[in-house]
Each structure stands twice: as C-alpha cells, then as structure tokens.
Design a protein that fits this description.
- Helices cover 41% and strands 14% of the residues.
- With 236 residues, it is of the alpha/beta class.
- Strands 1, 2, 3, 4, 5 and 6 form a six-stranded mixed β-sheet that branches.
Length: 236
C-alpha cells in the first residue's frame, strides 16, 4: 500500500478568505516503510502571512518572494498524490487549502485524486479520548523524538507524523505478512506448496492422557452442576 503523509504551512487560517499555502511537505510510505521519495516545496503565496501565522512557522515573507507559485508545482503534486492514501493531522484544514489552490487552476478536488484521506487527529481522539492530541503531545506519548521542532515546518511535521502514525497503528503489524519479504523481494514469486504431497501424522492420546482429560471434564461437570455443553449434547 502506498501512503503519503502530508502537511502544509499557510499564510493564515482561512482558505475561503484568501489565505494561501506557503509550504508543503510529503513523506512516502510503501507497505509502512519509508522510501525516501519525499516531496517538499516552499511556495510564493502572492500575499503576506498574518502576524500570528509567522509566529507559528517562522517563514518570512521575504524568503518566499522568489519561490515558485503554486501553479508551477501543482502538476508534480497531483501526480505524486495520485491514487495514494493520504494521511494528514487535522485533515479538513489542509484539504480545504489544497482544494482552493486546485480550484484556482481548474483541477479536481483532493478526494478525486487520491484513494483515501485518513485523519490522524480523528484516530487519536478515538484512541486517547479527553487527552491532548496535537502532534507534540502525540510525539511525547508515543516516544517519537520531536526535540528538533521549535517551529512548525511542513516536511519536519510530515516526518514526525509518519512516525506517530506507525506507532499508533503498530498493533496491525501482528496481523500483517510482508508479501515482498515472503517473495524474496520485489518482483519475486511465491512458491505454491501442494499439501497433498504430505501425509500428516495423527497423534492419539494414550491411556494416561485420556484419563487426565476425563478428570478435567468431570471437574467441569461438577462445577457447572451438569450443565456443560458436551453433556447437554450427549443427553439430547
């Protein structure tokens, strides 16, 4: 499964009121493993950031003046995201900004480009109800090192969120088999084993084991006052 962990920084809080994306960072996971095929862009938003936003991300208006506009990176971004599961913390915020940028360029909304959008904030609230579930709080709770995060940055936050997501869903690993490893790597083929070639031995209980089994059943009969399922079936 191809998954993209995505984060943005913006000039403010409202895409509807004209705020724009100034940075986008994406981290790729393939079968829950980091591939290194990440995507990162600073973007000229064609407007200044609000003062409160500057305090959050620290990306100056001057720094962004010579950066590409969103239109210049849109095609690359769309192809990078296409058909992937996109994982975002507080997804409605980032998706609203992406949809507004795409709309300006006549592109389809995010949900028509990607396979699925997964919101880790919703996941965290279900897993840790009543607790703080911001990215820093989740890093502390799950043992993810966020010591380098003094300001918000899209790529750094996407990398941290990828570690958080893997830790939040680590229980899935017990039920998953890495098909690529079984096949000897990418492009390998699984060997199909015909079980009809094998004669499975039948190991029957000896007299002592059978007697021990009957003793256990008798104890269960006694404690249930004769209401054990096997006795009810026998009597029926």
């Amino acid at each position: 499964m191809r998954q993209i962990i995505l984060d943005t920084e913006t000039t403010g809080l409202s895409a509807e009121n004209g705020d724009r994306i100034i940075e986008i960072g994406c981290v790729e996971l393939l079968n829950r493993k980091f591939t290194g095929n990440n995507l990162h862009h600073y973007i000229n938003p064609e407007r200044d950031s609000h003062e409160d936003a500057l305090k959050v991300h620290g990306i100056s208006n001057e720094f962004l003046r010579d950066k590409p506009k969103f239109a210049a990176i849109a095609e690359e971004l769309v192809e990078y995201l296409r058909d992937a599961e996109v994982i975002i913390h507080n997804a409605p915020f980032d998706v609203a900004f992406l949809n507004m940028e795409f709309r300006r360029l006549g592109l389809p909304p995010v949900t028509q480009i990607v396979a699925n959008v997964l919101d880790t904030l919703v996941m965290a609230k279900e897993m840790y109800p009543g607790k703080r579930n911001g990215l820093d709080a989740l890093c502390d709770r799950l043992g993810v090192d966020n010591s380098g995060r003094t300001l918000h940055g899209a790529l750094l936050d996407a990398e941290l969120l990828a570690d958080v997501y893997i830790n939040m869903t680590r229980g899935q690993d017990a039920l998953l088999i890495d098909i690529a490893d079984m096949a000897g790597g990418e492009g390998g083929a699984l060997e199909v084993v015909d079980l009809r070639r094998f004669e499975l031995p039948v190991l029957r209980a000896n007299e002592q084991e059978a007697q021990a089994h009957e003793t256990v059943l008798a104890e269960l009969d006694k404690s249930s006052k004769g209401k054990t399922v096997w006795r009810l079936v026998e009597n029926a």
